[in-house]
Every structure is written in C-alpha cells, then in structure tokens.
Amino acid sequence: MAGFPQLRLRRLRRNEALRALVRENRFDAGDLVYPIFVVEGKGIKQEIASMPGILRFSPDRLDAEIEEVAGLKIPAVLLFGIPEHKDELGSSAYAPEGVVQQAVRRIKKLAPQLLVITDVCLCEYTSHGHCGVVVGEEVDNDRTLPLLAKTALSHAEAGADIVAPSDMMDGRVKAIRESLDKNGFQHIPILSYAAKYASAFYGPFREAAESAPQFGDRLSYQMDPPNIREALREIEQDIAEGADIIMVKPALPYLDVIRKARDSFNYPLAAYNVSGEYAMVKAAVSQGWLDERRAVMEIITAIKRAGADIIITYHAKDVARWLQSA
C-alpha cells in the first residue's frame, strides 16, 4: 500500500460534504426511545433536581409532552411509574388503575402511532425499594416471578406495545412470556434488560423514581461490573426464554459489552444511556466545560458505533431537534 505523500487520509475530511459521504455510522430520531416518569395524582408537573430538563408528570399532564415527542418523530417512549401507595409486594405495579396503566391508556389515545414501552419492575412500588419480594433481607427470586408476570400482563391489557422487565430475576422472561401467551397477548414483544449492571450511574434515576433501596443494595441480582462473559450468558438465557429485544445498561461504561453482544447475537439490541450519564453532561454544560450539542451527539454516535440498534436516552428530544436543524 502506498504511503505518504500519496496516501493522505485527510483528503476525505476537508469539508462536511466529504465527511458525510464516507461516514461509517449514522443515526436518526427513529433509533431513539425517550424515558418518561409518570406519578400518581392529578395536575402534577415536577422538576427533577438531578436531571435538568426532565420532569415527572401525572397522567393528565402528559398531553403536551407526548405531542412534542411525537412531533419530533421519536418512535417510542419508556414509562416508569411512581405510585402513591407502596407496600412489601409492590401491589400498585399490577393494579388495573395503576399509574403506568393510566398513562398507557392516555398516551395511546393521544398518539396511537407512538410505541409505548413499559418498565416491568417492583422497585418503584415496594416499601423497601428492592426489585422483588423480600424474605428476611434477601430478595426471593421465585416468589417475585408471578408478580412480574402479573405486572407485565396488566401493562399489556392497558395497551402497552412492548414490556421491558428490568428486575434481573432469573427466569423472569419465561414467566412473562408464558403469562402473556396464556392470556392472548402472544403479539406483545419483550424487551429484556438482559445485561443490567449494578452501576453507580443510576443515582439520579433513583431520585426521580423514588426507588432507592431502604436497606442493602442490588449487588445480589444486578450484574457485577467487571464481568462480560456473564453478560453474554444472561443475554443467551433471556433469548432462550423468549426475549425479542435485548438490552445492555448502562451504555457508556459498557460499550465493550454492547459490541460483544452485537457480535454474538443476531437480535435487536438496545442500550440505555442512563440518568447518571445524562446528569454528568448537564452538570459539565452548566459550568461551561462542554459544548452540549457536540458532546451529546458524540455520545449517541459512540453508542451506535458500538452496535446498538435502539438508544434509550434522556437526550432524545434534544437530539431529534438537532437532527432536524442539521
């Protein structure tokens, strides 16, 4: 191969038209999912201190938000619920008139074309803040499974397009798939948080969703950050149990896991650009240390380049606007 001066790699970087012509990875608004926090009650629109620009909405205040998301051509939202009532079994998670169920019905009336994905977990709904049934000080995996299946079914009955279990219990995908199929929802896909790590980057989310554990931590069920082979086993197991889409969470500290998952499995792959990643950018921008648009677009590009088909991000609305103005 010829070397310099015949070979000049800078030739194709001289202007934006040339750079765009040979660009290897692209994304658009159709790759994005926007997370929304819904809180039980009426007339509520609350700011979240650790996540500037992100709000909690009661279902009756969702109209303008949904209109904006749909208008930006973002194809899907991911719902997280904050109930008024919490108990040891997280009963508000699967109540027919629970906050997520109310929000699903309202969104499907407002924007039928918008895909509604629902987070399936108990942590926001339990008095102890853990993702399953607690016996003593341990989360009981097998006692949790029927409640997760019941929650997913209630979301499907309310009109959810996709259910997304995030609890990290063994066997949850199989339990949910069997429940959906038994009750006539064979067509509802499961987006599994297959490789969800016990990350420090969830802090702002736990404030937003009021889901911090009241004792202990989640290290016994979420994944240990140093492990990658285990992540592939988790993904493989969830696919075997019936997952239609797989996810790696968080995104930025786990780009290598996203890449390995992309190379190993021929399934749609999602990545979650989580609350702590969002908050870090916002904090640096507020100090004048980062150009927000350039930093965010670089982050989304990195996640796409690593192999993600679907990017769940709190930056989704801004990214969609920037793409429209490009």
Label this structure with key terms:
326 residues, alpha/beta, TIM Barrel, 10-stranded mixed beta sheet, two-stranded antiparallel sheet, 11 helices
Q: What topology emerges from the helices and strands here?
A:
Layout: H1 16-21, E1 32-39, E2 45-47, E3 55-57, H2 63-71, E4 76-82, H3 99-110, E5 115-120, E6 133-135, E7 138-140, H4 141-158, E8 162-165, H5 172-182, E9 191-196, H6 203-209, H7 229-241, E10 245-249, H8 255-264, E11 269-273, H9 275-286, H10 292-306, E12 310-313, H11 316-325
Q: Could you give me the name of the CATH homologous superfamily?
A: Aldolase class I
Largest sheet: 10 strands, mixed
Query: pLDDT under 50 segments (min length 5)?
Result: none
Strand content: 15-25%
Order of helices and strands: HEEEHEHEEEHEHEHHEHEHHEH
Number of domains: 1
Q: How many angstroms does the end-to-end distance come to?
A: 37 Å
Instruction: Give the fraction of residues assigned to helices.
Output: 25-40%
Cα gyration radius (Å)? 20 Å
Q: What's the helix count?
A: 11
